[in-house]
Amino acid sequence: MAGKKQFDMDAALNAAMIQFWRDGYTDTSLDDLSRATGLNRSSIYSSLGDKDTLFLRCLDRYAARYGEKYDAALSCAASEPVAAVRAFFDVTLERIADPELPDGCLIAQSAMAIPVLSPSVAAHAQQALGFQRLRLRAALEAGRLTDQGAEAFAAHAAAVNQSLAVMSRAGATPAQLLAIVGVTVDALSQALRA
């Protein structure tokens, strides 16, 4: 249509997601989003929604992108639960090591910001965080852990996974992050042998 500016919606959402990921919800302004996406404020509002709506879209995009990778990593849990959990952590470690991406994790940052988020955004952030535990629990149950053991290790592994993102932002080295993962994987291996 003549006179109407066209833009790539996926590119704009990716740029907004990276902006929120880099600076967090609270420290990202509409001006920041405008610079990141190349869209003016009115285009952001009309095409992407207000800040809360855009953030939720970005959080969902992030959760889906990495959720698919986590699901693939955990797909062998029934036959190889330890290898599956290691592969799960490898997804995080690879994301952390990617120089094209911001440090940390958008979900972890969102969870830490829950006290200052609107109730709907806070609930969404909690839900995104909870999906990781549920994903791990299902995999660990398939890997022959009892319901109680699967829940305990899922909660622990999800917490470790989020701490990897926080530790990376705080300057932990790849070797330190790998050592953290090793402790959890070793504990799971011992629990499965018991």
TrEMBL record:
DNA-binding region: 29-48
A Pfam family the protein falls into: TetR_N
Gene3D superfamilies xrefs: Homeodomain-like, Tetracycline Repressor, domain 2
Record keywords, A-Z: DNA-binding, Transcription, Transcription regulation
Molecular function terms from GO: DNA binding
InterPro entries documented for this protein: Homeodomain-like_sf (IPR009057), HTH_TetR (IPR001647), Tet_transcr_reg_TetR-rel_C_sf (IPR036271), TetR_C (IPR011075)
Residue span(s) of domain HTH tetR-type: 6-66
SUPFAM superfamilies: Homeodomain-like, Tetracyclin repressor-like, C-terminal domain
Name of the protein in question: Putative transcriptional regulatory protein
The species this protein was found in: Streptomyces himastatinicus ATCC 53653
